[in-house]
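Chain and backbone:
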Amino acid sequence: MSGQSSKKIITVVGSTGCQGGSVAETFLTDAKLKNEWTVRGITRDTAKEASKKLASAGADMVAADVNDTASLVKAFSGSDTVFAVTDYWGAAGMKKDVEIQQGKNLVDAAKEAGIKHFILSTLYNATEMTNGKLPNIEHFDSKAEVSKYAAASGLPTTYFLAGCYMDNFPAMFRAADDDNNSNNNQPKTTWTLSIPLSPAGHIPLFSPRDDTGKFVKGIVARRDALLGADVRAATARYSPADLLDGWRAAFPGTPAAVRHVPDDQHVALLRGLGLPPHGAVELNENFRLMDGAFDYYGGKPLSLDVLVDGDRPTTWTEFAKKNPAFKDLV
């Protein structure tokens, strides 16, 4: 019991999600971290299966609500470090003002609880980076507003900026049999990447489930040096050709191609998938942010030097190899 009490507590908001789940898993399983830290997982429902799984792995699971600052203060109490993430697409209901308020609640709670290191998952303001040309990427702008609030609060904060999720890209590949390109009278299947990005575009790809914990591990190890700093977490900037090359490396001999999708078709496709009009426009502008004229991180370099202990980020090829969408190709 004395060993347990000597450990510092890292409280992880969204501990059953992809970013928070990665942080929780890393601190529960890393040989060094698990002896130095206790993981407290924050979730809205401690009875759900993902929460029970974390509890069985050693996490102290606590119920709290990002809309209820008092519940967050109670959940943060006694913690040294907090990893905080908001969910625009889920808990915030795709509403900019709601995500901003939820983020401010997290900052206020951390300030009141006396948190020594607040690691905020955030993004840059896309409207400002593009001089108003892409004003609808609300999940960027809302997070940036929370960052400003955290900075003004005096809370000791490091800003974690996740790259574009690799998880979004398998659905952009489609397989089709080409009856005119047969081998031994068997149609050959070509996998086509359909993407609203020109050849000049570059996407900073990131696998949140695999790699968020690695970056947060590095942030915690270099706390003093990284207070007030931005950590831009991505493997590399990939062009459409790079995506295709990486996919071919994962599945040698499988025909593949890339097809540019015009913006209007992309918006229509997203609407067909069930997104509301503003959500479809938002995601399309998100791609335009990476299409050569602008940059996801405003042209700033990736923060790979934050990684420690020989950790390295997951490549697109590695991610594709283990993705269920391509299981028949392995």
User: Anything to note?
Assistant: Residues 67 and 101 are 8 Å apart (CA to CA). The mean pLDDT is 94.
